[in-house]
Amino acid sequence: MSCDTLNYEMHTCDIDGQDALSELFFETFLRSEGKQEAKLIGRLVSDLLADTSAGDLYVFVAKSADELAGGILFSRLSFDVGIEAFIMAPVAVHPDFQRRGIGQRLINYALAELCKLRVELVVTYGDPDFYTKVGFLHVEEARIPAPLNLQYPAGWLAQSLCGGEIPYLAGCSRCVPALNRPEYW
Question: What are the N-acetyltransferase domain coordinates in residue numbering (predicted)?
Fold first, then answer.
């Protein structure tokens, strides 16, 4: 399937096809990380979609015809100081669509849309080799505190969407309840 035929879409938490989205994440992580990780991420996606308030969750998908090629969830990350921030997690591109740049294009599309919504900061927790390709930089927890203890601090990454430097955010951070579980960190 050609990447040129993909459509990129933004949804709030009441996306149609929640089962298809959960299946996309399950299948992607099953093939790349195994059954245990697939179940964990599948549950995270289901919980985020079911339990996160409107305005605290954005879902971005890449579709080829009616088939989901990729998906990203962004949930609110709150700090003691007033900043509009979200965490990008999880991210998946279906194995049949990988190695075509779809993930990078979907992330860039999502970040541009979030910028239009005046989101100032996006953080993620993942593979620095991949996420630095789309503008994320490693940050120390002293600069941006994580909501829970990180098992892999090198994977704590951030990007300013307002054109400035990544801010220093003193105090605590809080994620949405679905993400507030040690096994995700």
Answer: 8-155
**Would you state the pLDDT for residue 20?**
84
Per-residue model confidence as pLDDT tens digits over 121-164:
999 999 999 999 999 999 999 999 999 999 999 999 999 998 88
Beta carbons of 26 and 93 less than 8 angstroms apart:
no
Give the position of tokens 């040690």: 182
Task: Give residues with Cβ within 8 angstroms of 52, minimum separation 6.
Answer: 13, 75, 176, 177, 178
| Residues spanned by the domain of 139 | 3-184
DSSP annotation of 38: H
The Cα–Cα gap between 184 and 169 comes to 22
Give the Å distances, CA to CA, from 91 to 21, 83, 105: 11, 23, 12
Number of independent structural domains in the chain: 1
Residue 92, domain CATH: 3.40.630.30
